[in-house]
Amino acid sequence: MEPLSALKEREKSTITRLTRNAKIFKTIIQAILDKKGEHIISLDLRKIHEAAADFFIICEASSTTQVKAISDYIEDQVKKICGESPYKHEGKQVAQWVLIDYVNIVIHVMHPESRKFYQLEEMWSDAVSQIHE
Questions:
Q1: Contact 128, 43 (CB under 8 A)
Q2: Using CA atoms, how far apart are residues 34 and 61, in angstroms rounded to an integer?
């Protein structure tokens, strides 16, 4: 049986992890808003067992230049404010759909045509969604 002090440590680390993820989440949303990203939605995937992340954040930008600007600014702000670098990012060269992976939070910055074509919100319609303005 574990001593009570071990339980306190475990609870504390869980709270710290949630707080760090919440800070990253808020930083991402604010970065998108700062760069005028549109139609921002977050999907809470924690209750979907097949999901590879806890949250998806999806937004769109009216041009490929803006897609790149938003994705670059997200990475810059999360590094500056939270001290975190993405695990991976993809799509910056074509800039129709940029994916930024922070393991528990995955961001999709999409051109309107790409978003309409792939319909991520429909694919993950079981998730609880929230609109951010």
A1: yes
A2: 12
Cβ atoms of 40 and 130 within 8 Å: the answer is: no
Reading the chain (133 residues) residue by residue, the pLDDT tens digits are 445 444 444 444 445 555 788 999 999 999 999 999 999 999 999 999 888 899 999 999 999 999 999 999 999 999 999 999 999 999 988 889 999 999 999 999 999 999 999 999 999 999 999 999 8
Question: What is the number of H-type helices and E-type strands within the chain?
Answer: 4, 6
The amino acid at 51:
A
Give, for 30, the enclosing helix (H) or strand (E): helix 4-34
CATH number for 110: 3.30.460.10
Task: Give the predicted TM-score (pTM) of the model.
Answer: 0.84
What φ, ψ does residue 125 adopt, rounded to 5°?
-65, -15
Per the structure, the count of domains in the chain is 1
| Domain of 79, in residue numbers | 4-132
Kindly state the DSSP code that residue 133 receives in the 8-state scheme.
-
Cβ(21)–Cβ(104) below 8 Å: yes
Q: Is 124 exposed, middle or buried (0-12, 13-18, 19+ CB in 10 A)?
A: middle
